NADP-dependent oxidoreductase domain-containing protein
Amino acid sequence: MGDLPETYVAGFHDVEAVRKMKYTMLGDTDIRVSKISFGTAVFSNLYSGSNEDQWKKTLCGALKSGVNYIDTAPWYGQGKSEETLGKLLEGVPRQAYYIATKVGRYEKDPKKMFDFSAKKVTEGFEESLRLLKLDYVDIIQIHDVEFAPNMDIILNETLPAVQAIVKSGKAKYLGITGYAVSTLADILAKSKVKIDTILSYSRFTVLDQSLNSYLPIFKSQNIGIINAAVNAMGLLSNYGPPDWHPATESLKKACAEAREYCKENNVELGKLAVYYSVNQKGPHTTLVGMNHISILKSNLDVLYNGLTDNEKQVFDYLQNNIFGKLENICNWEGVELAWYREELKK
């Protein structure tokens, strides 16, 4: 039973649930973050379904259970996630959560998708605050840095613009996000602006452990490490991935095989994926999208109780017969970037 975190609010939280939650300092920030955190890309049209009543129950249930970190972005539904989140957080004490949003990635049109200019960073962030109905966020992150025309823009324009926002008091800390972990490490090595956190997604999962190789670099600089999308954006779930998923057909086929095996044995593949990732050493928090109370309950159950005997048997089978044999098809690095570059030429 742990000490109560700084986000605890008497009368709002379930005190015993909060004491049960595991917390750790996020790098050298003053944020003590819950072991599992709340991703809100699911509060948008990136994923199917829209039920704000259910989202409200899930978000408030998570917060009252001790989950204290929320992640969003303008890209998620072109502002839909932030706008929805602003409504769902009405009545929730501001002290009860830490929140991060992003700058740099915005619209579906490839010509307008990314803008890392200082002007857009400033304007876009103000729009985020408006939609979220907040005076400040705890972390402002540069979204998917590998898509910048070149790294000089990130280093010499975007980072200083974000640093100015932090200095203004409208954000407390600065982070970068991306799928290419090598790019995150490269920016950290070259940046003259202090970077506090990195968010890496789909790179420390049962499919792909790329982030693990970079943990010593990030740890040596006391960077807060957020491991996101541990369900590999739907690949590792019984629902399956959305149509836009950039994985190769070979990887999708392997995950479909795993999905069917799970269904045959009455096991949720997503629960196995979360189990794997929350038990990896290194990241300070595991960021999971949750759009239904049943998913929240499953995530808390696997955090506190692990897997049942049947789930362990299925997990071992998948590891030995499917995931352990993927070799060079376990990721989709470069796929989206190549598509984006081609679209810009049209």
